[in-house]
């Protein structure tokens, strides 16, 4: 039975970068059934719904989802598409690898995985909006903390890491974070893994100053969002950062960057984050060699000066995608 992969192009630059990622998936998964699901602002403006129950059913029927960025307008009637999908599909683990592809001549300055709890925290979606006072409920549960800690610990074992599990939190101000810290510590102890708890503000600074000191970091929802964006500095920008949203039965892959409406339609958007997200999907399907091949090919192109304008090159979105596919095919031929 062939794999079913839902493709959401999204808004802004999504329809430009996602097709380049899909090309790579189609190359390695020629028998897969790719089907499009329309979500986002454009659909909301036309129909009044950015993500309907029917859309959720379509996504649940997929073996994996490739997702482009969507625009979230400052309208109280607009429900975040991402939060809705994460909650409906219970995609509790957001995995964001931080690994630069540009060569410095001294080895990579970083190779870490940020493991972000993805369904609770300040992104719980429980809000009250008023004219004089608006509130968002920050939710931290024992169960939610336990399962994200288990995911982080399993990654430490997979990576054969000798480093402690770093817990990013802010328990001196947010007392709910003490539950998160203590639960993560308990889980790590059951795995035989040491932990190091660090206040998130200090962590954001130190991870930039001493990136080689970090391997796997686990943290709450909003802190993980901020920390991983901060770490974009180590990779060359948000256009380089992929992510995976993983649950027990569903998986969803998306670039970290937003919809970037200011450059949409110009053909200059960097597709690397979307393509690396597709590589994470390949690895999810057990195709680690193929995923590494994609990563290596991207690195080769960028280090030879073949890149989009944001990285100092002159390639268009589509020309970079075409050159990458050619590079992947060439590497495959050499390995046969």
UniProtKB/TrEMBL annotation:
Its EC number is 1.1.1.85. The lineage of its organism: Archaea, Methanobacteriati, Methanobacteriota, Stenosarchaea group, Methanomicrobia. GO terms for molecular function: 3-isopropylmalate dehydrogenase activity; isocitrate dehydrogenase (NAD+) activity; magnesium ion binding; NAD binding. Gene3D superfamilies: Isopropylmalate Dehydrogenase. It holds the Pfam family Iso_dh. InterPro entries: IsoCit/isopropylmalate_DH_CS, IsoPropMal-DH-like_dom. It comes from Methanocorpusculum labreanum (strain ATCC 43576 / DSM 4855 / Z). SUPFAM superfamilies: Isocitrate/Isopropylmalate dehydrogenase-like. GO terms for biological process: isocitrate metabolic process; tricarboxylic acid cycle. The keyword Phosphoprotein does not apply. SMART domains: Iso_dh (SM01329). Keywords: Oxidoreductase. Belongs to the isocitrate and isopropylmalate dehydrogenases family. It is an enzyme of class 1 (oxidoreductase). This is 3-isopropylmalate dehydrogenase. Residues 4-324 form the Isopropylmalate dehydrogenase-like domain.
């Amino acid at each position: 039975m062939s794999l079913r992969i839902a493709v959401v192009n999204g808004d802004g630059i999504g329809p430009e970068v996602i097709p380049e990622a899909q090309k790579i998936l189609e190359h390695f998964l020629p028998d897969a059934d790719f089907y499009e699901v329309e979500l986002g602002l454009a659909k909301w403006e036309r129909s009044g719904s950015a993500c309907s129950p029917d859309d959720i059913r379509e996504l649940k029927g997929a073996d994996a989802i490739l997702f482009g960025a969507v625009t979230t307008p400052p309208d109280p009637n607009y429900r975040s598409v991402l939060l809705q999908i994460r909650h409906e599909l219970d995609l509790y683990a957001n995995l964001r690898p931080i690994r630069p592809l540009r060569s410095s001549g001294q080895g990579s300055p970083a190779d870490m995985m940020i493991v972000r709890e993805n369904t609770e925290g300040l992104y719980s979606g429980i809000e009250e909006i008023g004219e004089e006072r608006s509130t968002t409920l920050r939710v931290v549960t024992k169960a939610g903390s336990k399962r994200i800690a288990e995911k982080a610990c399993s990654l430490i074992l997979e990576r054969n890491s000798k480093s402690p599990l770093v817990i990013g939190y802010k328990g001196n101000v947010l007392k709910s974070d003490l539950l998160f810290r203590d639960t993560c510590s308990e889980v790590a102890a059951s795995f035989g893994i040491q932990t190091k708890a660090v206040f998130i503000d200090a962590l954001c600074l130190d991870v930039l100053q001493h990136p080689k000191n970090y391997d796997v970091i686990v943290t709450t929802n909003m802190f993980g969002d901020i920390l991983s964006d901060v770490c974009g500095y180590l990779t060359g920008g948000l256009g380089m950062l992929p992510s995976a949203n993983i649950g027990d039965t569903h998986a969803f892959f998306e670039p970290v960057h937003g919809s970037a409406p200011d450059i949409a339609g110009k053909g200059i958007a960097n597709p690397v984050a979307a393509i690396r997200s597709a590589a994470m999907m390949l690895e999810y399907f057990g195709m680690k060699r193929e995923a590494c091949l994609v990563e290596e090919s991207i690195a080769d192109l960028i280090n030879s000066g073949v890149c989009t304008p944001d990285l100092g090159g002159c390639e268009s979105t589509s020309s970079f995608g075409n050159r990458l596919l050619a590079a992947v095919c060439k590497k495959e031929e050499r390995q046969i």
